[in-house]
Design brief:
The chain contains 6 helices and 8 strands, in the order αααββαβββαβαββ. It is α+β, with helices and mostly antiparallel strands. Strand 7 and strand 8 form a beta hairpin. Helix 2 (33-40) crosses helix 3.
């Protein structure tokens, strides 16, 4: 028989649930320890221990005299950040548009990309979409979101907001990895990007996770004549 949940574990679990659901987005201030002590009818030591566990897990940031805040994502790579495609397109003076091509809820299978780090049987939201700049195809996106890790995604209207933008604004993560390759467009991809078959493309595969749990895996394929990657850095 499992032991009963302690009050500290309950406090931590309820705060964590609000963070992971997106109810408390990155930068949101967590109630002060005194407020949580009054709410749960417990000592500040119990609250402090719960918050310390959340900070250790990378979900919150504790600031001396200012309080605790939902952590902003920390980039693992100094060379390549996670882009917000709408902001990038609009930043260069072009009109952004987005098309949701397909949306399915399914279970992960044995055929998933090895880099996705997904376990067969876990529930997924499978999204296919296209980004456009000034009405021209810019990128083709195939994304998997773990519904066990990000349950709020199941109720989000991704026809209205691009999934990458929504995830950046609502879901904290601790690590990310990229794999970048140059490819030639197969017929389906070529049609989606308005390229001749075999046209040059840049493929970026990305996985973000929290702890050992994958949040999302995405493959974004950009027209080779419309996108490049660059960075400035020092030793």
């Amino acid at each position: 028989m499992s032991r009963p949940e302690t009050l500290g574990e309950r406090i931590r679990g309820e705060i964590e649930a609000r963070i992971l659901s997106g109810e408390w987005p990155p930068g949101h201030r967590i109630p002060y320890e005194s407020e949580l002590s009054a709410l749960y009818g417990c000592s500040r030591m119990t609250v402090n221990k719960a918050l310390a566990g959340l900070a250790e897990a990378g979900l919150i940031e504790r600031r001396r005299r200012a309080g605790s805040f939902v952590a902003q994502p920390v980039l693992q790579s100094a060379v390549l950040r996670i882009p917000d495609i709408p902001a990038e397109i609009e930043g260069r003076g072009e009109a952004y548009a987005f098309e949701l091509i397909d949306r399915r809820t399914r279970e992960a299978g044995a055929h998933e990309p090895p880099a996705a780090g997904l376990t067969p049987g876990q529930p997924l939201l499978d999204l296919t979409c296209r980004h456009l700049a000034d009405g021209r195809p810019f990128a083709f996106e195939e994304r998997l979101i773990s519904l066990a890790a990000v349950p709020a995604a199941a109720e989000t209207d991704f026809a209205a907001v691009p999934p990458g933008t929504w995830l950046l604004r609502h879901v904290p993560w601790t690590q990310a990895e990229h794999r970048i390759t140059a490819i030639n467009a197969a017929p389906r991809l070529a049609r989606a990007l308005g390229l001749p078959p075999g046209g040059a493309c840049l493929s970026v595969e990305r996985r973000t996770w929290r702890g050992v749990e994958t949040l999302t895996y995405v493959r974004q394929t950009f027209r080779g004549d419309a996108y490049s990657l660059g960075a400035q850095f020092a030793p």
